[in-house]
Write a structure and sequence with these properties.
By secondary structure, the protein is an all-alpha fold. It has 4 helices and no strands. The longest helix is centred in the first third of the chain and has 25 residues, at 16-40. The protein starts with a helix and ends in a 23-residue tail after the last helix. Residues 1-23 are annotated as: Disordered.
């Protein structure tokens, strides 16, 4: 199956359970890309998303417009013993 066929198939509606599973996978891949962006830069994160066939509009939005992202916990921040952010 070519990349184009996989992209076409990804855009077709799927049954509800399968759709939730693929949405979670995409969300996890985006989170990995955001960590890569923090560690290695935007180019590395973009290459990661491209290799996983994440739609370009989604990749551009999450990598270049952080103010439009959904809330996510801060990565690599110190946490106190009671679970609150240290600082």
């Amino acid at each position: 199956m070519s990349k184009l066929e996989r992209i076409r198939n990804a855009m077709e509606p799927e049954p509800h359970a399968s759709s939730n599973r693929s949405n979670r996978l995409v969300a996890e891949q985006v989170e990995v890309a955001l960590v890569l962006q923090e560690m290695l830069g935007t180019s590395a994160a973009a290459k990661y998303l491209y290799a996983r066939l994440i739609p370009l509009n989604l990749a551009m939005r999450v990598l270049t417009r952080p103010w439009q992202r959904r809330w996510r916990p801060t990565v690599n921040c110190p946490v106190a013993a009671d679970g609150r952010l240290a600082g």
